[in-house]
Amino acid sequence: MPAVDMIQPIGVLNDPEHPASHEDTCLAAALASVKAWIAFPEDPMWEQWYPDGQGKSVRRGKPKDFRALETQGAVMVRVGDALAAGLPPAMYPLSGRMKQLQVAGTEMEHSGRPASHEWPAPEGVPSLQIGVDTALGMSTGKAAAQSAHAAFDWAVRQGPERLRAWAEAGCPARLVPLHRADMARLAPAASVRIHDAGHTEIASGSLTAIAR
Description:
- It is a single chain.
- By secondary structure, the protein is of the alpha+beta class.
- The protein has one domain (6-104, 116-211).
- It has seven helices and ten strands.
- GO terms for molecular function: peptidyl-tRNA hydrolase activity.
- Keywords: Hydrolase.
């Protein structure tokens, strides 16, 4: 059970016939988190959820689950073979199709390469760049949630006009897996630094993801 009462549910596709990489899955989940906010800005749960800690739950599902989620209005984001579905925050426990998706054991194969979406950005348009620490050994589900934390914090800092320009350009974004030394080198210049609360997998205070 999450340590918060409200969570934003994010689904990631687990399709054995078209397996997605860890990196593509993390970027798709990050973008799904932000695009759900852009798609449903008037949902009252955002205002309650964000200051309360931005809890997220990344869950894996099969193609049939994603067909049902799309019917229910979930925002879909594809990066390579990865597909993620985002919805506005909801009270825990969840209801509907998201409740049926699996949480534990979400693991995709690492490519070790950056993942990109609509990259590079047109001149004058903001671009989201996420770095994720590979030394922590996070599962794909955990890393995807941390990437989504970083992306959402970045989006909030853009302001309405810059965020609108970013969305209209197709949400240009790039996710880079970083070794510990590179994480330490790049973190001081990042506009967003995500430190984990330590509820699952890794120690409290660990620097998991950065964004700029």
